[in-house]
Amino acid sequence: MSSWQGLIDSPYRRWLPVPDTAPAVSLHEGATPLLRSAHLSAATDCEVWLKVEGANPTGSFKDRGMTIAVTVAAATGVRSVICASTGNTSASAAAYAARAGLEAVVLVPRGRIALGKLAQAIRYGARIVELEGTFDDCLRVTRELAAHHPAALVNSVGNELRLAGQRTVSYEIVDALGRAPDIHCLPVGNGGNITATWGGYQNYAKEGLAATLPRIWGFQAAGAAPLVHGTPVPNPTTRATAIRVGHPATWDGAIAARDDSGGLIAAVTDEEIFDAYRAVAHRDGVFAEPASAAGIAGLLREHAAGRLTAGQTVVITLSGNGLKDTEASLHDGYEPTETSAATSDVARALGWDS
Ligand code: AN7
User: Looking at ligand 1, which atom is closest to the CA of residue 186?
Assistant: First the structure.
């Protein structure tokens, strides 16, 4: 029986800058579901597919890059890895470091990360520093620390290892569809994932494994949309905390993905994000975290603006799992139906008593 063993021990290894002798540090990430969305396909008159990255081992796409970064860090003999994070990178770094027997140090903006992500980092045994400031402050301090201490920086900024791992999402999509989509929608925070996703499609096209390239449509939250405005945002705000980034580190890569693909980077409001967050769970049965819903919100907005052509194939990255941020769900209009334990009371509460 052969089963999926993660990205490094897969046919994608040839794309990954991992030394032949390095044992894989893996949690069997990758090979995530690509699901057709009936309701988004009907709403847009297109073929819309959801790439469910929340199905990765720590619940986000970050695992694709982290398996590579930590495998190489462990092979080169460092003892610690360090990262700044809006949450998902810290959970992923902590998990892969635990698997490799390394120390993980994570810097997060205090009070601004979803509690599920913090809970993960705690349990995987990371050393957590909650910093008074934004993600951008965390990244600045992390880079300064990594320059002077023997800890491997595992943020995607300038980290070819992380980006190479994250490119695998595009390989999986082309392999599953038998072609590249016409449009790929995804949320954008620090700019790493849009850069990697575009790079993956480019690699496949260069080798003749895909005949076409998609347009990349990236979406930022309206209160944290520096790439849309063309200038950093000092105090980014959005309830989609994963993409609350004011000064994306991979700025040039994100702009190149937009321009070279003939795509766009636009803003979506928190209201649009939360509408999409509810709909994808309720209509498709996929619980994605709020930031992940930005790609859906964006697709619907661009459809309304007339920028889709009927029959196009669209893939949307759902970057993280809804369980990461249970508060977002619990505080979004849920009102419990409470009764005694008598069947008649329950029936009455449900309106089934007649
Ligand atoms: C669910 O964890 O930056 O544009 O520190 O967690 O590559 O930053 C997370 C980013 C989208 C944006 N969706 O990707 C971090 C972090 C989710 C995310 C993004 C993130 P980038």
Answer: 11
